[in-house]
Amino acid sequence: MTERRSAILKLSGYRAVIEPDRWVPGSFTLVVDGTPQSHVNLDDPSQLFFEYVQRIGHVIDQLGMPGEPITALHLGAGAFTLPRYIEATRPGSRQQVIEIESDLVDLVRSQLPLPRNASIRVRHGDAREVLGKLPDGLRGEVDLLIVDVFSGARTPAHVTSLEFYTEAVALLKPAGIIVSNVADGPGLAFARGQAATMLAATGHVAALAETQILKGRRFGNVVMVGSRETLPLEWMPRLLAGGPHPSKVVADGELRNWIAGAPIVTDTTAVQSPPPSKNIFQVGTRGD
Where are the beta strands (DSSP E) in 195-240? Predict the structure, then answer.
């Protein structure tokens, strides 16, 4: 690893730092504005560390046949944890990543290089703006679209609305999957609104999270999974039983009860996700 282990991101002004994981050799954590955003194991990219990322990994594992290449679109780069995972578990996959912070991409690529033979293309710019400018040949051809867009510890409002999700879903194959990482706290007003909004855009949605988070008892990440076709969830309980746990899948009638009448979010009503308490995610960043 070279000397440049941090960068001040020009657009946001946030400081991004790549920290070695002292417990797992060959692993690193990307911290942005004091918030851990990604964890990468360069020696074994198939190993996922954060709980919500492991759950997204479970969803990816269910797509098509095991090991079959897929076409994936990632909104938000982080340290490219999931693009690396897909390349490791589904070699030959075609992937595109949209990231607004070019300095972040440069930092990650210099410190945590991507696999040489991986087909991972990076497009720079705002996720929603670039989404509308993607090649026509990509529309209707995406197997997996992952929404993991954060500015610091919060999701920007313009990637939470029905208009946004409708545009994103148009890129999917008929059985394609959209996955959104939603962070919320007690009461889950934001997460329930996101579930209602994704359901309106897709027709089929499931929420995956730790049981205490789904009950609205503490702040955490809820993984929302949507599709225009019935979700292949028959294997999910067994996969979740392998960890991290305790966890649960909420779908169908139970999901509608969980939404509890939350309004669908539109461009005119959208707000950014709530901020976590400082002691939940944030860590100190050391000087370089």
Answer: 204-210, 220-227
Instruction: Tell how strand 204-210 and strand 172-184 pair up.
Output: unpaired
**Mean pLDDT of the region 253-266:** 96
User: Cβ distance 37 to 150 under 8 Å?
Assistant: yes
CATH topology of domain 50-274: Rossmann fold (3.40.50)
Amino acid in the structure at residue 169: V
> How would you class 188 by CB atoms within 10 Å of its CB: exposed for 0-12, middle for 13-18, buried for 19 or more?
buried
Task: Read off the pLDDT band of 133 (50, 70, 90).
Answer: very high
Handedness of CA 288, 40, 72, 255 (dihedral sign): negative
pLDDT score at 286 = 35
Q: What pTM does this model have?
A: 0.93
Average pLDDT over residues 150-160: 91
* Residues comprising the chain, all counted: 288
Domain edges within the chain: 50-274
DSSP letter for each residue of 46-68 = T---SHHHHHHHHHHHTSSSTT-
Tokens standing for 124? 């720079």
- pLDDT score recorded for residue 284: 42
What's the token pair of residue 201?
């855009």
Can you list the positions of beta strands (E) in 155-231?
172-184, 204-210, 220-227
Question: CA dist 50 to 32, 36, 54, 82, 221, Å?
Answer: 15, 10, 6, 11, 10
> Distance from CA of residue 106 to its chain's centroid?
20
Instruction: Locate 215 and state its tokens.
Output: 């009950």
**Cα 41–Cα 46–Cα 47 angle in degrees, nearest 5:** 55
- Measure the CA angle with vertex 34, ends 31 and 40; round to 5°: 15
Q: What is the mean pLDDT of residues 124-131?
A: 96
231: nearest Cα among 183, 198, 262: 198
